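Deliverable D4.2, example record:
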Amino acid sequence: MPEGRIRFRNHDEVRSLFGTRDRNLRRLRDVLQIDVVLRGDELHLFGEPDRVERGTEVITELRSLIERKGYLADEELDRVLDRSQEFAHGGADSIDVFHKARKVQPKSPGQAEYSRAIRDHDCVFCAGPAGSGKTYLAVAMAINALRQDLVRKIVLVRPAVEAGEKLGFLPGDMLAKVNPYLRPLLDALSDILDFDQVQRYLDKDVIEIIPLAFMRGRTLNNTFMILDEAQNTTITQMMMFLTRMGNSSKIVVTGDATQTDLPDHVESGLHDAMNRLKNVPGIGMVTLSGGDIVRHPLVRRIVAAYDLDRRERTGAPRSNGDAAHPVVMEPREAVVLESSPADSAATTVPVIP
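Output generated by the structure prediction step:
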């Protein structure tokens, strides 16, 4: 297995890199997908050749920051890792939104697979946990298609289902009433484009944001349609939405099966469709995992904790991708690692599994 080596001047620099209770080390291993072993004042990196090379570059840059400042700030670690991910998953997988020379970069192999599936298929289903970029990447791909004149319109759709609590009657006109349900789609748009540009598109009906119930009876040609939070659709609603597809149109359906707000006796339309249509030519199926979560690092651990509890209660198998890249890791028992000649005794440290 390919190996990379990085020498530090002393153990204080290594401790700064690893962070409190090795939290930085865990994140480096998770993001870079490499194994890291400490021998004396030298780090040994193991993994696939390209990942070892990238890991060596990232850790060398972090070591330089520590040597210059004497510590490693969380925001500096975030910046270096984010830039590394953009470089690793850029190129053909980057999404050009043609707005102020900006490109949206998939930040994990799963996200890159998702963006490729949207390019290659007219209908794509994507299931994954919160924070894995399902909605954001779909919106970016829709803007890319609009700016290239591949479609004339973007339609963003969500079921108006309350998340476990009754809001009662909301004030205002129809748009004001449905705004709380559709707000996440507006947030994704506003993060990619300027507010003024989003408002112009909305005013000219180039971008339409509507509740799922209002899709019945429509046929949409040359349109990029995104159905968000699809786990909250019924089987009938899902069929209704999918059959709105007209000529030269695309559909992307996203959802998280672990956050269903339907009554217990109602089967999710997303789950049914992904099983029913998995062998239909022209339809892409992508499942993201905890390793694709790109929000705050704590989100990964939160999702993993809930998933672990669900599996223990239901006896369900481990989520896809968790076995290879677990989010929550505990140190194994301490072992004695090799020491450098300068050390008078071997150093005992926990090894991260």
